[in-house]
Amino acid sequence: MDIFLMITMIMVTGLIANVIGRLMTAIPLAFIEIAAGMLLSIIPPLAHFQMEPELFLLIIIAPLLFNDSQNTKLSELVKQTKSTFAVAVILAVMTIVIIGFVLNWQFSVFTLPLAIALSAIVTPTDAVAVKSVTISRQVPSNVMQTLEFESLFNDASGIVIFDIALTVLATNQFSFGAGLLNFGYVFFGGLLVGLIAGWLVLWLRFSLLSHNLGEATLLVPLSILTPFAVYLMAEHIGVSGILAVVATGMLHAYQQTRLRLTSTRLQVVNKEVWNILSDTLNGFVFVILGLLLPNVVISMTKSSPALIPLCLFIAILIYGMMLFVRFMFVRMNLSGHNWHGRESWLFSLGGVHGTMTLAMAFSLPLTLGKEAFPFRTEIIFIAAAVIVISLLVPTLAFPLVLPAKAVAFTPEQLKQTRASMINYALDRLSDEDYDSRIQTIVRDNLRSQNGFFTGEQKELLRLIEGMNEANADAIDAAVQTGILPPDANKITKRLLVKYKHGHLFHGLWALAQRTWFTKRQIKRIENIPDFAKRVAEIKAQHHELLDQVKAVLTDSTNTFLESQKTSENHEEIAMVHHIFIRRWSQFAQRTITDDMQTELNDAYVRVFQFEYQYLQDQLTSNKISQGLAKELSEQVSSSELVQFEAGLLDGEA
């Protein structure tokens, strides 16, 4: 129960941080999530939160890397094979060795194996962290791709050297040949296991599809379980689980073109599920980092408070050395890119650290032999400081040298164009010869594409109250002139009381009265001969009366709203009209016959065609951008999918 509570609190914190991040776009989301995690650490159940490194790698890192790798552009990776190997292996090893020797030379407390272990911890870069600090900046595509490819593979380099350093610390023995052999086994063995496991998973997917078993309920869970199974299998054999997961994901990316058209619904569901899972886990990473930072500082304060300034200096020194090594590596053309000036600095600053550094730091053993592991708390503190520094420096530097990322459209443009698209489809629908009830149902659902309540609240409430009064006056006048029978007042009263703003009690009381009256009527006529026939006659009379009332109410509503139109309340007018249609359809629901269902299906097909036509016309005339048309087209496709799932377009009403 405690674990469930902690996970729930971390998830809720991540969601809150996401909301704040949407409102405060000037601050990278990673910093907001870290700050939220630090505030979360105040809560007693989480005050002493401890991270299990192996569980962290399995549950968070493995699926994140799998998703990143299955979305990788393999054509670009093939082009950059040499440069990727150079920055992910050669640069990583050089960085670890240089920083390790400098730390051992300058600080006698660090033996060479311990210094190498520390440098191996802080060397791996993090694709998630890189994206968090560049999300609003236009980074050159060649630099960004190199950073992403580096972060996919250099984790394994750091882990292997980290394990070798720990082995040397425990045994006081080191063999260069054995270390190189172990590195090759873990690195390339991980890739091989990932390719084999990935091929088996793809074979299983194609087999299920060929036997008409390709439902999303089977293949999406299979996709989600894949990184966990591959990671555990690779780690059990003794090779890199991280690289195995990356290799499997890339094999999925290679086969994506064959899988893409097997099932449109499957691809849509699979993509959306992975997007949600990836966003959730990314939030987990930085919330957990913020949650752990206070514990690290408190532990450091208790064990060796005098060393805090020295550890901060070491963290700054390590980050500075990593910048220098990365800069010189690309300037000397060792990365395979002929970069000079700005690209070199962007690549250097883009070496942001995060999840893997955190996981490796906490995986340090508590004891070494029979004694406590030397400087374990200090190393964790230094690693955490390096992460924060590597996030902070590019966050401050990138806005000075990089332009803001161009957007294809603004939220306001999306909102206005979507509203215009819906209104266009509704106008065209009104020209079609459909039953009024079909028109009402389709209009009601179509308007939900733009949300249910839009506009300024006070204006909405004023128009709703005014509409209610206009409706009541119209019914009174119709009854007095004999256009409607006196029963029309009862129907209108029930409708208006049910929706009158601030009168929930009256609405519930009216519902109770209606229920009581209905039961009395049923008891009274139960003994009448031809009971079923009598009920049918009452229903027919009631429906006829409803149609008469609706005609009067529709006319009064349109007249009132037309009289209230201004240049500033167009959105509120449309919303109130939608509310009237929606509440009337709920009040006077009828059974949809088979013939009406066929007509309803056809109406939905037509309105979606009208929406696509509108987007095509706007795009052809250059009134909207390609990006905006694509976004709205995807929304229309999703609406179609929802209608299919609801059984409205496939005859399953």
UniProtKB/TrEMBL annotation:
InterPro entries, per the entry: Cation/H_exchanger_CPA1, Cation/H_exchanger_TM
Pfam family, one: Na_H_Exchanger
Topology in membrane: Multi-pass membrane protein
Annotated localization: Cell membrane
Keyword Cytoplasm: no
Residues covered by the Cation/H+ exchanger transmembrane domain: 13-399
Listed transmembrane segments: 6-23, 30-49, 84-103, 183-206, 213-231, 237-254, 274-294, 306-325, 345-367, 379-402
UniProt keyword Metal-binding, yes or no: no
Alphabetically ordered keywords of this record: Cell membrane, Ion transport, Membrane, Sodium, Sodium transport, Transmembrane, Transmembrane helix, Transport
Coiled coil: none
Main location: membrane
Name assigned to this protein: Sodium, potassium, lithium and rubidium/H(+) antiporter
The species this protein was found in: Periweissella fabaria
